[in-house]
Design brief:
alpha+beta; T-fold; 28% helix; binds adenosine-5'-diphosphate; binds magnesium ion
Length: 350
């Protein structure tokens, strides 16, 4: 039984999951096995770990988890032209599109996340994200270009009709992208599928979006390391999770630099420029959909307003690194985090 450090994401090294892996009986006499497998889905590395009474149950729980992620990808990915969300985008300004309850729910949750974060989270940001993506050649869109897109970044024009179960983007050219919340939602649903398939405990990690349930054999919680936003491969803090989800939004995941300025992939919906208040925001919540939905929105809100919001939300905690590299912990985390080199669970805020 070896301790391994698993880099959870291929493109976004925001969270490092540290746990037992392989297919092993753990504590002597324990009937449990721990099995971990990884596959590429939703454009990223998805790792699923199952704790189960037998090998067979562990593998079928992992299969059920991957199946669920694949099913949601078919509904939500804007890279798949036939997905429900692609059809909603293709029908912008034309007509409402009937969708599954799940697609409808993700968009509704995204609108709620927008409300909670004062518009910091905005899934209608799609056209602006694309304008910055023209940065294959590291090109910075002009103000004129961004101003022309601004009317399209309009969440009020994203219509969610529950009775008809349809989604409608009222303006031609609008595009929604649930990249900032969909992986957390998928992690929640993969966990439900794993439990139904008989897993006793486990972890679903889609890139930096991780959802855990139960405990490792021997009663240990799942330890996670949070990536330092400015020291590649270094851990900022460690935290143990139990029946919780964690998600990080960082300015170091996808970025380029020009004249000493960093341009990254999280945009402020007001300015349509990269948000400037934080280097990274990690949110811990009961559900992945909220951890994922809130990290991006709080990143945009900045450290002060973002932490004030976190303190008001029940069962939600955050670790924020501001633009100057200062670390802020929400009040519920002061005794839960460990710093590298520290052996017990005592942390300190700054
Ligand atoms: P990832 O793990 O893919 O980096 P994040 O949760 O950090 O995901 O969300 C970033 C993605 O969300 C971006 O790739 C972009 O598509 C989208 N995005 C960027 N800015 C915003 C915003 N203000 N609100 C909602 N989504 C955004
Ligand atoms: Mg997010």
């Amino acid at each position: 039984m070896s301790m391994v450090r698993t880099i959870v994401s291929s493109c976004c090294l925001s969270l490092v999951l540290i746990m037992e892996s392989g297919c092993v009986g753990l504590s002597p006499g324990s009937p449990s096995v721990v099995v971990k497998r990884s596959q590429i889905h939703m454009g990223t590395l998805v790792s699923i770990t199952a704790v189960a009474p037998t090998d067979l149950v562990a593998h079928s729980a992992i299969n059920a988890g991957f199946q669920e992620v694949k099913r949601l990808e078919q509904l939500l990915s804007t890279w798949i032209p036939s997905s429900e969300l692609s059809r909603v985008n293709d029908s912008a300004g034309i007509k409402p599109v009937p969708v599954s309850l799940e697609t409808w729910t993700v968009v509704q949750r995204a609108k709620q996340a927008a409300g909670i974060t004062g518009g910091g989270f905005n899934i209608a940001i799609g056209p602006a994200v694309d304008a910055w993506r023209v940065t294959e050649g590291q090109r910075i869109p002009t103000e004129t270009e961004l101003n022309a897109l601004r009317p399209l970044v309009d969440l009020q024009a994203v219509r969610t009709d529950l009775h008809e179960q349809t989604l409608y983007l009222e303006k031609p050219g609008m595009r929604i992208d649930v990249g900032g919340i969909g992986k957390g939602y998928a992690a929640d649903h993969a966990v439900i599928a794993m439990k139904q398939a008989g897993a006793l405990a486990g972890v679903v990690a889609l890139s930096g979006d991780i959802k855990t349930f139960g405990q490792l054999p021997g009663g240990r919680t799942f330890p996670v390391g949070i990536q330092h936003p400015r020291k590649e491969g270094a851990v900022l803090v460690y935290i143990d999770l139990e029946d919780e989800a964690i998600s990080t939004a960082g300015d170091y995941e996808r970025f380029f630099e020009r004249d000493g300025v960093r341009y990254h992939h999280i945009l402020d919906p007001n300015t349509l420029q990269p948000a400037r208040g934080c280097q990274s925001v990690t949110v811990i919540a009961k559900e992945g959909v909220w951890a994922d939905g809130l990290d991006t929105g709080i990143f945009v809100m900045g450290p002060e307003r973002g932490m004030e919001l976190i303190e008001r939300l029940p069962d939600v905690e955050a670790i924020i690194v501001d633009a100057d590299g200062r670390l802020f912990l929400s009040s519920g985390l002061h005794n839960r985090v460990r710093f590298p080199g520290q052996s017990d669970g005592r942390g300190q805020g700054q």
